[in-house]
Design goal:
single chain, alpha+beta, OB fold (Dihydrolipoamide Acetyltransferase, E2P), Ribosomal Protein S8, Chain: A, domain 1, six-stranded mixed sheet, five-stranded mixed beta barrel, 7 helices, 18 strands, 33% strand, Ribonuclease E/G
């Protein structure tokens, strides 16, 4: 039976719904980013061009406004979507006005602590954007408008689309894709063939969601709630993504170690993270930058 497991890492907390060794669903909470569900005391710092508050060292947009509050006024807000960062670092978090008292965000999941088996494979899916399935391959890419899933494969179009619908639904859940996701299937002849793809999506997509019917060009748009960055979003902020992955691998070492990696990856490691890693491994941690090392190729070695 599937169960949630949570890992308290350095730089991030990870949660995964695991069945045997398969990750069905995953979530990440980054340190230094205020998560959705947090209630904070805030100050209204701008009314135009966008209503903006400052709280907890971050700025949040208020899409629903703040009736009766003047610029400089105090209020309480609940974070509804964390700052996404990644390829769009300007995209600030979203919040709404609330009368509730300040509190921390709920836990990522009702889970037991442990080590998530298969996490490295999931990270490879996120960084490459490639998901293989029986009969073809999905290519997932974030864009300014939405996350796009391109369907490719060698089956006949109707069978390929059916398999891809199942694979897309699972990938959306596993990679924590929220907001708008467009799926570009092969063009299908006939209403029944297009409806069958929709039926598969309806059966396997995690609720709640909304979707369009497949149009004549094979395009379907899925919209799900988005309260945090997906793994695809996180992978777009490549240096920080790889830095946290390196810290997870290095945490298994014992004694003094050296972290070898691309300079951009090593620069993304905060000093306090290094201090915590040093305490965890029980020895000094040094950094060895090498521009010849691929961003995903960073490694820890005994010093």
């Amino acid at each position: 039976m599937p169960e949630w497991i949570i890992e308290e890492g350095i730089g991030e907390t990870r949660a995964a719904l695991v069945e045997v060794d398969d990750i069905l669903e995953a979530r990440v909470r980054r340190e230094g980013v205020i998560p959705a569900g947090t209630i904070l005391e805030a100050k209204l710092v701008a009314v135009a061009p966008r209503m903006t508050v400052e709280a907890g060292g971050e700025q949040f947009l208020l899409p629903r406004g703040a009736p009766g509050i003047s610029e400089g006024g105090k209020l309480h807000v609940e974070v509804t979507r964390e700052a996404l960062g990644g390829s769009e670092p300007w995209k600030r978090g979203l919040a709404r006005v609330t009368e509730e008292e300040p509190r921390e965000a709920p836990a990522l999941a009702d889970a037991k602590p442990g080590t998530i088996v298969g996490w490295d494979d999931l990270l490879e899916e996120a960084r490459s954007g490639i998901v293989d399935y029986d009969g073809g391959q999905l290519r997932i890419e974030p864009t300014a408008a939405m996350t796009m899933i391109d369907v490719d494969g060698w089956l006949v179009p109707d069978k390929l689309s059916q398999m891809a619908a199942w694979a897309s639904a699972n990938a959306i859940r596993r990679l924590d894709l929220g907001g708008a996701t467009g799926i570009d299937f092969p063009s299908l002849e006939g209403k029944e063939a297009r409806q069958e793809v929709g039926n598969i999506l309806d059966m396997y997509l995690a609720k709640p969601f909304e979707r369009t019917a497949m149009n004549g060009f094979g395009f379907v748009q899925v919209v799900r709630p988005k309260s945090r960055a997906s793994l695809i979003d996180l992978a777009a902020d490549r240096a920080a993504f790889e830095a946290r992955a390196l810290l997870r691998r290095a945490s298994n070492e014992v004694g003094a170690i050296a972290l070898h990696g691309h300079p951009a990856v090593l620069e993304a490691i905060r000093p306090d993270w290094l201090e915590r890693l040093s305490r965890k491994v029980g020895g000094a941690v040094t950094l060895q930058g090498d521009a010849a090392i691929a961003m995903s190729g960073a490694y820890a070695q005994k010093a």
